[in-house]
Amino acid sequence: MQNPPATKAYWASVALAWLGLADAAYLTWIKLSHHEALCAGVGNCYTVNTSKYAEIHGVPVALLGALAYLAILALLWLERRHPLGAAYGAMAEFALIFAGVLYSAYLTYLEAAVIHAFCPYCLLSAAILLFLLILAIIRLLNEAPPQ
User: Fold this and answer.
1) What are phi and psi of 82, to 5 degrees?
2) For 73-88, how does the pLDDT look when each residue is reduced to its tens digit (9 = 90+)?
3) Measured between alpha carbons, how far is 59 from 106 in angstroms, rounded to an integer?
4) What is the pLDDT of residue 87?
5) Which of 124, 99, 107, 94 is nearest to 13 (CA)?
6) What pLDDT does 81 receive?
7) Which candidate in 6, 20, 105, 121 could, as Cys together with 10 as Cys, close a disulfide (CB 3.0–4.6 Å)?
8) Torsions phi, psi of 133, nearest 5?
9) Within its chain, how far is the Cα of 134 from the centroid?
C-alpha cells in the first residue's frame, strides 16, 4: 500500500503540533522547576501557573498538554506509515484535538472568570489547538483515506 502524498494541511498540523509541544514542554518545565515564565510584562503567568487549576492530582496540566501534543504527533506519524493509522488516524486526531479544545476552553474560562489572570503561553496553546481542530476538520472533509 502506498500512501497518498502529504497535503499542506497535514504538514501544517505537524508544524503546529511541534509548536504546541514546545509550548507545553516550556510550561511543564516552569511548573516543575518553580521558575517564573518569561511573560515580558504580558499577562500574569505566575498567578495562573501557581493556581490550584494548574494541576490535577499533583500532575501539571501543562504535562498533560505535552503528552496530548505527543499523542497528536504520534497519530500523524502513524497515519503516514501504518494501514490502521491511514484508515483511522485522521478521525483519532480529530477526537483527541476536539477534547483538547474543550478542555482548553474550560481553562481559558477559569483564567478569565476565576483566576482573573491570563498566561500568554496558555492562550497560545489554546489557539494552536483551535487551528489544529480546523485543520483536522479540513482534512476529514477533503482527504479521503486510501482504498
Assistant:
1) -140, 140
2) 999 999 888 888 788 8
3) 17
4) 86
5) 94
6) 85
7) 6
8) -65, -45
9) 13
**Assigned architecture for domain 8-142:** Up-down Bundle (1.20)
Cβ count within 10 A of residue 124: 17
- The span from the CA of 114 to the CA of 51, in Å, is 10
Cα separation, 88 vs 80, whole angstroms:
11
CB 72 within 8 A of CB 87: no
Q: Where are the domains of the chain?
A: 8-142
pTM over 0.85: yes
Packing angle of the helix pair 120-142, 8-33 (nearest 10 deg):
150
Rounded to whole angstroms, the Cα distance separating 13 from 35 reads 30
Cα–Cα distance between 142 and 144 in angstroms, integer?
6
46 Cβ contact partners less than 8 Å away, ≥ 6 residues apart: 36, 37
